[in-house]
Recover the amino acids of this structure.
């Protein structure tokens, strides 16, 4: 079986984004495979090695073998350092924003983050993410690096704008502000700090927590 990972996809069309989504799913699938191989080879004799550590080392192995490893000292080359939040350190380039994700909102799981990214790209294609690489220190912490296009001339949207936008997408408000569901997906943290509106009044969700209400066996199906 061929376990090659396709090259980064230049976005700009629906077809290109679909190809990038497939690439993200390929990376997640290959990461899972490497974790299973590691556990089969070393699990019995290294019971003190956590699932987190196994995934971290698998991610480093994958990134170095496929050419998307970024030494942590080189992340400043991605762009000008931007605001840092609970989950991401950001680096701003002319066309977009690179987000170095610390996995705090995903229980330390890279695969869980990639699953969430696929859901984000399905629901909010105007702010779809692409996968740029893994940044880290050799043999230590590994953090995914994601890329998102910039929204020009934008400011935080009001909560009323956000509620109206989500209703147009078929989502209903819950009792918690900024949390919505449509029966298939649940999205939350949709607050003004994570949603922008541009000069033409268009709304863009740049960050959100998302999960499927019903689990799916194949992360590539979203």
């Amino acid at each position: 079986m061929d376990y090659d990972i396709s090259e980064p996809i230049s976005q700009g069309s629906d077809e290109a984004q679909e190809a990038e989504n497939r690439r993200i799913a390929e990376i997640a699938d290959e990461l899972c495979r490497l974790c299973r191989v590691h556990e089969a080879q070393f699990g019995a004799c290294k019971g003190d090695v956590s699932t987190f550590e196994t995934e971290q080392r698998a991610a480093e192995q994958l990134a170095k073998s496929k050419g998307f490893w970024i030494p942590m000292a080189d992340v400043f080359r991605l762009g000008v350092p931007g605001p840092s939040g609970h989950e991401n350190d950001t680096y701003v380039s002319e066309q977009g924003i690179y987000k170095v994700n610390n996995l705090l909102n995903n229980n330390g799981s890279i695969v869980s983050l990639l699953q969430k990214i696929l859901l984000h790209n399905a629901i909010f294609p105007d702010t779809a993410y692409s996968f740029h690489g893994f940044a880290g220190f050799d043999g230590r912490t590994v953090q995914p690096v994601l890329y998102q296009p910039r929204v020009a001339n934008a400011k935080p949207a009001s909560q009323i704008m956000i509620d109206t936008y989500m209703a147009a997408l078929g989502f209903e408000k819950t009792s918690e502000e900024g949390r919505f569901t449509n029966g298939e997906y649940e999205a939350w943290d949709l607050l003004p700090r994570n949603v922008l509106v541009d000069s033409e009044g268009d709304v863009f969700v740049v960050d959100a927590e998302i999960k499927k209400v019903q689990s799916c066996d194949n992360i590539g199906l979203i």
User: Anything to note?
Assistant: The radius of gyration is 18 Å. The CA atoms of residues 81 and 91 lie 4 Å apart. Confidence is low (pLDDT under 50) at residues 1-10, 216-222. The first helix runs from residue 14 to 42.
